[in-house]
Design goal:
The structure is a single chain. This protein folds into two domains: 167 residues, Trna Endonuclease, Chain: A, domain 1, CATH 3.40.1350; 66 residues, Arc Repressor Mutant, subunit A (Orthogonal Bundle). Helices cover 43% and strands 19% of the residues. The protein has nine helices and ten strands. The strands form two sheets. Strands 1-4-5-6-7-10-9-8 form an eight-stranded mixed β-sheet, with helices on both faces. It has a two-stranded antiparallel ribbon with strand order 2-3. β8 and β9 form a beta hairpin. The chain is globular and about 60 Å long.
Length: 276
């Protein structure tokens, strides 16, 4: 068992890594400056109206809880039944015991309160889990990989509308990440088209289409990408399976899901990209 000295050293090393990342980020222009050089002026960013987050001192623990796919699915059900829910209404994806633990956790954080014989969401209305998921993915890129990040970004660009879910700066380059909280059956070809339109407009060095699901991407999502590529190019690039449900095109556009963990899958994308 590690003693207190080892824990102190580990905490010190983590602080040093954070400090060094911040120093490296300062050596290159801020992300908003890099975007401005490309002709993109930020109109809106980090919208807070639909965020489901606890108080500031609880954020770190909440971030770690979001690593669990079952907890993210649980939060979707809580949002769906935000005016009132009984435990059985939010137990679709976990055991009753785990669900009770999740409810107790949200109660301790002050995100839910008691109502009659059940519970309700105190921070409401919340339209969907989408903005919270964007915040979480942005935090992953910042905390785990040292990127300078923005989420929920909107530009005044009449030709290409909509939000850029997550943008990140690395080594003076731009990563654009589309973040989907819906299951594959609720994603349509127009969303794939919009993803490519934003890539064409922004010209990021790296782009990721991420779906927070453990379902297969090959059944619906990859065929929609294949069709979009055929619509765009006389000789469309191949969609190559990296492994399992991770795919890439031209070593710079990636399709991933949450199977195996979001952090690990993003790391595999970055390793693939930087090694090529």
């Amino acid at each position: 068992m590690a003693d207190s000295t080892e824990f102190d050293e580990l905490a010190y090393l983590r602080k040093e890594v954070t400090r060094l990342r911040e120093t490296l980020n300062e050596l290159t222009p801020r992300i908003d400056i890099i975007l401005r050089r490309r002709g993109f002026q930020i109109y809106r960013k980090k919208p807070a109206e639909d965020l489901l987050l606890p108080r500031g001192e609880l954020i770190d623990d909440y971030y770690r809880m979001l690593h669990k796919y079952s907890f993210r699915l649980f939060l979707r059900d809580v949002i769906k039944h935000q005016d009132f829910f009984m435990p059985e209404a939010v137990t679709r994806y976990s055991t009753a015991t785990v669900t009770e633990e999740y409810i107790a956790y949200l109660f301790r954080t002050g995100l839910i309160g008691k109502k009659d014989h059940g519970f309700l969401l105190l921070h409401k209305p919340v339209k969907s889990f989408g903005e919270t998921l964007e915040w979480y993915v942005s935090e992953i890129l910042k905390r785990e990989f040292g990127f300078d990040t923005l989420w929920g970004v909107k530009f005044k660009r009449p030709a290409v509308g909509g939000d850029y879910d997550v943008l990140a700066k690395y080594n003076g380059s731009i990563l654009y990440m589309e973040v989907k909280s819906s299951p594959p059956k609720q994603v349509y070809d127009r969303e794939i088209t919009a993803f490519f339109q934003r890539i064409t407009d922004l010209s990021p060095e790296l782009a990721i289409f991420f779906m927070d699901t453990e379902l297969r991407m090959k059944d619906k999502i990859v065929p929609m990408f294949d069709q979009e590529l055929k619509n765009r190019f006389p000789e469309p690039p191949d969609i190559v399976r990296m492994e399992k449900e991770l795919f890439q095109m031209q070593d710079r556009i990636f399709i991933i899901n949450a199977k195996g963990g979001i952090i690990g899958n993003i790391q595999k994308v970055l390793q693939w990209y930087f090694r090529r």
